[in-house]
Amino acid sequence: MSEGASAVTPVGAVEVERAVEVAVVGGGAVGVTTAHDLAVRGASATLYERGAVADGASGRAAGVCYDAYADRIDAELGERALDRFREFSGTGAFEFVDCPYVILVREGDERRAEAIREGVARMRDHDRDVSLVDPTTLGGEFPDLRTDDVLVAAVARNAGYTDPGAYTAAMADEAREAGVEVREGTTARLLPGEGGPTVETDDGHEDFDAVLVAAGAHSRQVLADAGHPIPLKPYRVQALVTEADPITDRAPMCYDASGGYYLRPREGGLLVGDGCESRGDSQANQNPWDSGDGTELIERDPDDWDRDADDWFVADCAGYLETAFGRSYPVDRAWAGLCTATPDGHPLFGERAPGLYVAAGWQGHGFMRAPAMAERMADQMLGGDGIDAFDPNRFDGDEQFDIVEGMELD
Ligand SMILES: Cc1cc2nc3c(=O)[nH]c(=O)nc-3n(C[C@H](O)[C@H](O)[C@H](O)COP(=O)(O)OP(=O)(O)OC[C@H]3O[C@@H](n4cnc5c(N)ncnc54)[C@H](O)[C@@H]3O)c2cc1C
User: Fold this and answer.
1) Which of 2, 62, 235, 244 lies 20 to 30 Å from 308, alpha-carbon distance?
2) Which residues constitute the domain of residue 275?
3) Ligand 1 pocket check: which of 103, 233, 339, 369 to mutate, most ligand atoms within 8 Å of Cβ?
């Protein structure tokens, strides 16, 4: 095993003494990291991926990472994930770059300004390195950012970015080295039954002591086929990258809550995102970014959605960059991907039925918590404790609910 893998093995984690056979369905950041952690702890692990590793949301994500959560458990998971990213940085093509994360609202948006003030107070209660800053100080630290109409801003210092696809590929390689059998091009189905979980593929059936479904937007489908429904809705989000521009070297990561956009530096240019589709997108004069006033987001079929970005998104982004930097940036490329929503905005994470586990429903924040969630999941699958607040059995599985965007401030 490489140096990178041993460095991230958590101290005091559950390790197995008998032969335990486990399977993971889904080769995204969550699935490959969990499979890796299971193998490092002594389990015999098989990972099924219907396409190639990182074919799902993990290969399309922006890679913005932070621990600036108002909720204590999320903040702790975010911090642990950042530690693991830093320790793993330099493995294969994976690199993690430390970078401050700015949260701001612009003049005229008192509701969100108050939400930031309250959110920052709660983050600080949980010992997060986050502070409110006045616009002049913000402009002094980040001179390229337009701050003249900023009403309230905060800077989170424990933050950074990376390429999520590179992380997932590097971790999959580490998993293979740790002994995980990674079966790409293999769609897994779960069979309903009374005994332990059984996975069916085109090659036959296999029984396991424990199976994790980390199949991203397909997780509901995979579990429903086995008779264990979960309330999970996929929704489409979009991102773009600009061409390289030396000025953006000094940009922070930024979430503009008034505009609904986030951005981060990327290879000398910028990555800009969100673009959640709301019901109003097709109507003129609607701001489709602004889903924060109760606008319903659209549920997508995980097997039938448009992977290319919409024209309105690219045009709106160009306008937004003018707002954020006071100048334009040529767009290099744009794309779409699927995120997953749950009724209460918290993940579905834990044992859904005996031996059958789920890790899904990240509301657009799954990558940044993946290394921490994965080690918790590996622990739970090997007999450790789960996270009560995320227990998937808090729902029946047939709940009706509207999709609420994960970036929106409480
Ligand atoms: C444009 C965009 C930007 C984002 N930005 C960020 C960000 O900045 N920070 C952040 O934290 N999060 C971000 N996210 C969210 C993040 O991508 C996800 O929360 C995270 O990647 C989920 O990882 P996962 O492993 O759970 O799922 P996925 O990466 O979706 O992996 C699931 C895998 O399961 C496979 N699969 C499905 N069904 C089967 C089956 N039956 N058998 C075998 N394999 C199967 C799929 O092919 C897929 O590879 C973003 C998402 C998008 C789309």
Assistant:
1) 244
2) 98-159+234-341
3) 339
